[in-house]
Protein 1
Amino acid sequence: MILVAILIGTLVAGIGSVWLAAALSFGVLARYTQHMLSLAAGALMATAFMHLLPEAFEGGVPPHDLFLVLLLGLVFFFLLDKAELWHHGHEHHHGALSEDGHGHAHGHEHGHHHHGESSGQPGSWAVLAGDSVHCFGDGVLIASAFMADVRLGALAALAVMAHEVPHHMGDLVLLRAGSDNRRMALVKVTLAGAVTALGGMAGFWLVDQLREALPYFLVVASSSFVYVALADLIPQLQKRLTLPQTVAQVSWLVVGMALVALVGAIGHGH
């Protein structure tokens, strides 16, 4: 039963985020992209601090050890980000110089996908490969949450879906800048998103074999969520805005937190 829940959660997170990204990039929701960034940041932080970390600290592991894992997790994701930026920095530099017209779309790319939009088809396949690996990792994290509690798993899946939206928007922009049409770009990114389910199955097996290490898995998931929110999403919101725009931005951040709190309260009620 837990495996079925993991598969549903990972598919919703992996594929749902791609389709929502397509709606924000190409469809009627395009005007709400900045609101989505605020919502995702709030949801990620609330999921980490209000649900995953408290669950981990109730597992009987010494708090000192869990805080150490949290710190190491943040450093790991920082180094991972640095490695990807270094790998793609040359392409990004030339893409930024030659593609001034894509500045708006580039601004919404996820921190893990700062690639030049002019990299063409070979580069787009490299992006999809990297995206698939990233989605596989998301699946493992979601499975860890589901193994602790179905409610936690649902929250983690929703949080992953929210933070992957700007990530996939960058992928769709890149693929469309190559030789892909809109439909083919959507199909390719959807297939990459579906790899989240494979990660979920792998995570189910891994956590089942190492069940006593579950609190550590939850802390690693928390460090991922906190890093993405503070290093990737919130910096994109740090720009000079009018007072109404600032109020809207903060409001959507609070809405993201409130949604997570509401889902958590409903879960406790059942």
Protein 2
Amino acid sequence: MNTRPQFRPVLWILALALVLTACQTETAGDEEAAEADAPTETASVESETIAWDYTGETGPANWAELNETYEACAGSRQSPIDLVADDEAQDVNVEFDYTEAEGTLFDTGHGVQVNIEGGTLRIDGKAFALKQFHFHTPSEHTVDGTSYPAEVHLVHASDDGELAVLGIFYEEGEANDFLAPVWEDLESRATMAAADPLMMNAADMLPADRTTYTYPGSLTTPPCSEIVRWHVMQEPLTMSAEQMEALTAIYDDNNRPVQPLNDREIDRVTL
């Protein structure tokens, strides 16, 4: 069984605003103004000026009530979710066409992000351009109720405004060679802001096993728009204890709790 979810079309202008922050939204103020010229860091006016957080009165339980533009946060197709799929993995036509490109470390105000436009993800022939990847600690998605220490989201956008997000879990283990040069500038938020661009290829991030959980969902932060094709990889990658500590020292507990599955189906597919 591989049910193809139908996604509502959205205006490209809105989609661009969403994709460039995807599951991470920037804070307003000096950081935002300083990075205004970077296309992958543009956020909607509402997301920039309306405060939200992961705890307290502006935390996930209240996001939908903070502003009418966040009403989707109380929707029926929200992310993240607990991933459970009993059926055999099926083949689906997904192609990774990543290229080496310049990546820029960026502090969103809610997490660590790397802005990069380096290739595409093709799903059933439809192209989704890579825009950025960012980290959540601990993981947002869970598998059979179990979370991982970290999760990265690779955010892609199509020309018509649909989003495809590829999620990869991390567990503690061997040092991650791909992340090593990025982590050199992860000592503090100040060193992140001063970091030089790095050449990288997102293909080097992918695990060997391309089996994924896929389902229709949403952004995991306000405005929680339900326009995302989620593909969360089954096989986790590793970070060393030192790498994990460096990440959580900057941002920790920046994960939205799992949301109800409702009437959606989770498919397990081989890419």
Protein 3
Amino acid sequence: MKIDLALILAVLSAVTGLVWLVDRLAFAPKRKLMQAEGEEVAEPVLVDYARQLFPIIFIVLVLRSFLAEPFRIPSSSMMPTLLVGDFILVNKFTYGIRLPVANTKIVEMGSPARGDVVVFRYPGYGPEDDRAGTDYIKRIVGLPGDRIAFRDQTLLINGQPVAKEVAGVYVGSGQGRAMTGATQYEVDLGEGRKHLILEESRFSNPRAEGEWVVPEGQYFAMGDNRDRSEDSRWWGFVPEENLVGKAFVVWLNCEGWFCSGAFDYTRIGDTIR
């Protein structure tokens, strides 16, 4: 079950704010009058907590809804760009400002460019896919109107093979050890948008091959770890309304939930591109 933190923060902000406001307008003046008459009247504990927590919760809600939101990378699908255990920040306004919880866009700001690494809500294979709505992270390779093809480990965009050059054998450390021995390639998506990908086999999975035309308002996304990524080749396109934001920096890497394992300090501050 996916926990909707934005909804939790919105509810807590509303409840604490309402408690504080009602007390300030209705009960606080009465307490002041009673105190002026010499009576000892303490502020209720609930009101005290609400008054202190409301600004904190509200600020966190605003920051993660409109500026930047943290995410943790749970899988190897974006290696070598992102490792398992990376904690990243996602720019929430690059593709437009959206209301929290409802995710309704209220201000247009821009749209994804080819090569952007984006977080989005997984659209799912269908209505019965209980993973639908889970936050995924992939790289945008196809824009609305593009013709995308993938066969023999080659990505084609509008009929043109995407250039890639061997960049050596990948040697991983820390949480990247699992992919040691894979072939690393530098891929050029055009306009200077170069990045590294990994391939374990010379031959692509036949089930991941095909040709697609990207509809208006949707995008084609792929993982950089080509043989270990379940992406648009498998489940289809990413609707524009599912976009969460653009990933831009790694701020921490550690092993295990709650960082119970080792830290990789070399990852801190890495720009995502």
